[in-house]
């Protein structure tokens, strides 16, 4: 849909532009015109003359404009348990932290979501997601609190409404009082979709069905969760093939590896994306490529938990959709996605493909268009093209950190974290000169500290 001639326009000029479109079109000096919540034009040189209703002109000299970054995997609640179990692998880390996580409540979930969202948004994220799966009994409206925080921050958002029904007494890792029943999880998930999911082109809030993982979820919840998602017309998300221990668990419990197990429960398809996918063999990658199942690559978290190096170059070569994820901030304490561009490139170069694994432009594509693919929104966002939603970032590249690097995309990916001069979501500016315009960062810092301390006290008393 074209923007109305009466729409207010913002014109950005004199900037380098990486569109991340199908042809990786770039402009050494170009313009972007925002009309309402859409990109009206993008191209070389100055903006077209005679534009009506121009309410703002931005001189982008010294800047690179890219699509906004898209985060495809996160656990917001972990913001208030950062810095714990820092020398653990995944399973031991989960065992150490589940007793604390099982005691979160609505004010904690809200504050943690605010902290997670604020940190990402001020670093160039325009579309975020949260895989929230811990719903302790009597904890309040956790999903509503998370969605409210996203709405206040001003980012585009997908809530992956998670669930667990395999507690300690059934051989799972979480405490029994922190898991739901099969029927309860399905009913609550359906209610969340019906209340909050928006399927429109410019939706700011969407919901996915997201049982947590094979070792915390029953086979029936996986199977019925997939059926529920497809009946409601929403996407599916879970963790997959994160560690060698998970692969061993699946073979022992189900008699097959994770990918075969997922396929047996209806969990491969173009409406599915999975986090991590570190331990994938050629057959697994071929299955993902054949079904167009997406992957959320979380390089920093995988390194923090010593999970391994995902075969991202092989996935991309096979045609698997791949985006980037922060993962929960109890396993990636920085909570920033723009640093994952660099980490994805560097960590993948430690793998079999070495220096040919990823380059700067492939890394940027993972964090933008790849993320949009994974979330099912590539028609709407993820690249700078006329008609797409106005989700974009102006990165300042003329400071000490970057000015001596001639190529701005190389500077953005290989260099230090670049300052964000402006970030727009749906045509609305939410960041200016590295500070959020929509929420009070200092107030959030105080509230997250207070809620982290309250949670620690409750967990210690338990």
UniProtKB/TrEMBL annotation:
> Which Pfam families does UniProt cross-reference here?
Amidohydro_1
Q: Where is the Amidohydrolase-related domain?
A: 64-428
Q: Which UniProt keywords apply?
A: Hydrolase
The molecular function GO annotations come to: 8-oxoguanine deaminase activity
Q: Which domain of life is it from?
A: Bacteria
Q: Which InterPro entries match?
A: Amidohydro-rel, Metal-dep_hydrolase_composite, Metal_Hydrolase, MTA/SAH_deaminase
In short, the EC number is: 3.5.4.32
What name does UniProt use for this protein? 8-oxoguanine deaminase
Organism, as annotated? Streptomyces parvulus
